[in-house]
Amino acid sequence: MFNTCLDRWYKCALKRLKRVLDAAIERQTIADISTDGELTEQTPKKPDKLRFTIKSHVYIGFVFAFVIAISIGIALVATLLMMDRNLEVIEVSNKYVYHTFEARSYEKEFLLKGAGIKEAHQNIRALKDLFLEHYGEIKKIVGSNELLSKIDKYGKLLETLEDLQAIATPSEELSLKQEKTKEELQSLGGEMVTVAKGLMRKEQDALNKTMLLFRVVHIYAVVFLILFITFIFHLMGYRVLRTLNRFTVYMGQISSGKHSNFQSSKFYRDEFTDLSGVLDQLVKEYDRQQTIISQSHKLRAVGTLTAGVAHELNNPINNITLTAHMLLEDYSELSDEERLDMIKDLIDEAGRARLIVRNLLDFARESESIMEPIAIGDVLEETLKISGSQVKLAGVNIELKVAPNLPRIHGDKHQLQQVFLNLLLNALDVTLKGGHLKVEVSMADEDNFVAVKVTDFGQGIPDHILHHIFDPFFTTKTKGKGTGLGLSVSQGIIAKHGGHITVSTKQKRGTTFTVKLPITTIPADLSRYSETQTLLDNK
Amino acid sequence: MMIDNKFEVLLLDDEPIVGKRLKPALLKLGCEVEVFESPQKAIKRINEKEFDVVVTDIRMDEIDGIEVLEHVMNKSRRTKVIMITGYAMMELARQAMEKGAFDFIAKPFKPEDLRMVIIKAAEAQGVKLTLSQEPH
């Protein structure tokens, strides 16, 4: 009968505990949703940022490079064409010079020997044809029709000379005229040669200039193209590599448990922005999962504690039962004083029971993570209080040594309690009845770290297991006794605090788990003190 | 029942209220009751005197109930030992029964429950205890 009554009471207590936890978890999810809501409020801000993707970066760079390459090509072809034309003109002027010289040499032959006038005429005609054929080019260089008139004049003078030569009867007047014509012809011939040479020189100069231009365009274009492509690729490489580096840093932070926001301060958005958005979501989801795992594990730890707590609770309940029954039984025979004493006992014992339950619920409740400066010694004392009944039940003596004047650490009290509880329960499991455990809190050998050492004197951890003890779901405990999450969750929590857990073990001698936590560098929250101060002032 | 042959009970529990409340309850059975909170003192007393019944809590700080039980069993096989257990200690209770405990009673219990067990233990020793409404 009592067993059933006890069972009912136990089940009822567990149900209440579960309700409290469920409510807490629900609150957490609501909090999650509300933070999501904030996110959606933030999203409309995003389109304000210009979207400049890496894809468009590549395209723009490519198009620019392409356009520049094409214009360089066009410039080169243009200078080549210019050179071609120069060469053509040089050829023309060559012909021109040739014909001029030919004409002049035949003219000389004619003057000396009286023969060759026909060939001279032919050359002059060829000269004329050449001039007419390349009128445009020659005019551009020489600048006027003067040359043509000179050729014409030369031709006419030749004819005149021929005519004069043909007159058989020599006379003084004739020879005078002949001499005059000869002189005119020679000076005109000289002028024509000079012009022809000038033409040649000019063309040569023009060709040299064009070739120089061609070379300069060639070299500068190639250099510019190379510089431009390098610039574009450097810009992109810098952009990609810098972002990748940033990602690497973030990933490192995540793996060490520090979760900061991925969103960069860049003024534009790109593929990396999308990626970081997805990663942010991933980290958030991971965090959420971690919270759930941590919570479910906490629940399991509570389950482990429940037996101890139930036992602990039975004492006040038993006292209440006995006192109440005796009060009922002897009510009429008792003096007022005795009755009052019994009622006082009832109230005290009820208070004692309430305190036990409150301690456990306080621990089990899903509380928001509040990082605050805390004294690590207090956290351990509270942890020992929570696990006290379990420890007593196991018949183990725990020695807690806290070094005096330890600096505070920055952390979440409940999460740290969970870690130390895990370590204590693990240590309890390997300690025989009547054995003892040691918990030491002191400064770590590492600077700015506090160390908490939980030492048991059990069998130690075998080497082949040692590598796996922090793996999730790894357990050596029998089914239903351990989730295999205790150490993995603890490690996650400690990493989040910027600390680490190490283990040292000796076969058949025992194991020490050391938790190192960084001391706080944040000044104490003075606002609280000022608050109490104002309260006191008001009083 | 003769005055000089009273049924003698030793009650050991580290919770003071248990002894305080159960003593008058057991006195009503007409037995002699000695109450102890400390297992050492109780063992000392057991060494001095043979009790008819020893009621002991199983879980106590220095010496647990099983040790007290063993001590009593060594000292006097006649003495009936009744164990008080907490919840989740069925294994311990079974152990106690194996070691010769007369019976066990689980916390929380009513004074009447313990009285019934003690009456049973007395019967086993050939003594009939009855509940008198008036304490001495």
List keywords for this structure.
heterodimer, A: 539 residues, 2 domains, 5-stranded mixed sheet, two-stranded parallel sheet, disordered C terminus, B: 136 residues, alpha/beta, Rossmann fold, 5 helices, 41% helix
Q: Indicate how many domains the architecture of chain A comprises.
A: 2
What is the C-alpha radius of gyration of chain A, as a whole number of Å? 53 Å
Q: Could you tell me how far the N terminus lies from the C terminus of chain B, measured between alpha carbons in angstroms? A: 14 Å
Number of strands of chain A: 9
Describe the structure.
- The complex is a heterodimer of chains A (539) and B (136).
- Chain A has 539 residues and is of the alpha/beta class.
- Chain A folds into two domains: 54-231; 283-522, Heat Shock Protein 90.
- Helix content of chain A is 71%, strand content 9%.
- Chain A has 13 helices and nine strands.
- Chain A has helices at residues 2-42, 54-113, 117-133, 135-142, 146-166, 172-255, 271-330, 336-364, 376-394, 413-429, 463-466, 486-496, 526-538, and strands at 50-51, 268-269, 372-374, 397-402, 409-411, 436-443, 449-456, 500-506, 510-518.
- In chain A, the strands form three sheets. Chain A has a five-stranded mixed sheet with strand order 4-6-7-9-8, covered by helices on one side. A two-stranded parallel sheet of chain A has the order 1-2. Chain A has a two-stranded antiparallel ribbon with strand order 3-5.
- The radius of gyration of chain A is 53 Å and the shape is rod-shaped.
- Chain A starts with a helix and ends with a helix.
- Residues 29-46 and 528-539 of chain A have low confidence and may be disordered.
- Chain B has one domain: 3-Layer(aba) Sandwich (Rossmann fold).
- Chain B is 41% helix and 18% strand.
- Chain B is built from five helices and five strands.
- In chain B, helix 3 (65-75) links the parallel strand 3 and strand 4.
- The model of chain B has no long low-confidence stretch (mean pLDDT 86).
- At the A-B interface, helix 1, helix 7 and helix 8 of A face helix 1 and helix 5 of B.
